[in-house]
Amino acid sequence: MNAEAKRDPVPALVWVKSNYSGAEGGQCVEVAASPGAVHVRDSKDTTRAPLAVDPTAWTAFVEFAAL
Q1: Each residue of 8-63: pLDDT tens digit?
Q2: Quick one: which of 18, 23, 34, 45 is 20 to 30 A from 51 by CA?
């Protein structure tokens, strides 16, 4: 993930989109970390409620996806 961050209406969350996501759109997700959860949302439809995941589960997912 890079520093291409977007501010959410809820000031505590700063959404970050992966630098692997191109500017032309496509299938992109954004994540925002908070003390108790990692929030994941569709970058094309930010009005939908994000998915909140336990930080430990998110770490396991990212490690698995990197294989």
Answers
A1: 555 578 999 877 766 666 678 899 999 899 999 988 888 888 999 999 999 999 99
A2: 23
Q: In whole angstroms, what is the distance from residue 65 CA to residue 13 CA? A: 24
Q: What does the alpha-carbon distance between residue 14 and residue 66 come to, in Å, rounded to a whole number? A: 23
Name the burial class of residue 14, with classes exposed (0-12), middle (13-18) and buried (19+) by CB atoms within 10 angstroms of its CB. middle
Residues in the chain: 67
Which DSSP helix (H) or strand (E) runs through 10? none
State if pTM tops 0.85: no
